[in-house]
From TrEMBL:
Belongs to the MOZART1 family. InterPro entries: MZT1 (IPR022214). GO terms for biological process: gamma-tubulin complex localization; microtubule nucleation by interphase microtubule organizing center; mitotic spindle assembly. One of its GO terms (cellular component) is spindle. Keywords: Cytoplasm, Cytoskeleton. It comes from Anopheles epiroticus. Its main location: cytoplasm. It comes from the Eukaryota. This is Mitotic-spindle organizing protein 1. It is found in: Cytoplasm, Cytoskeleton, Microtubule organizing center.
Amino acid sequence: MPEPSGNDPSNTNLYMRLQQSQLVRANIQNISQFLNTGLSPETLDICVKLLEAGVHPQSLSEAVIQIRNEMAALNNGQSGE
């Protein structure tokens, strides 16, 4: 990623926030892989945005588990046909 040009402090601040955001995102993905969550990077991004918007973490985890269970049941039903 190129360095910000000029002496505009807002460009530097934006650049630093973007770098920090990418670092945080990479760390979250690494933790997710380490914990073997099976969540894609896109799904992790959605979960983080929901948490930032104020969704209760326990409620979010329960919803993810429920969706996984329902998807597994649908996949098992399709494979039996």
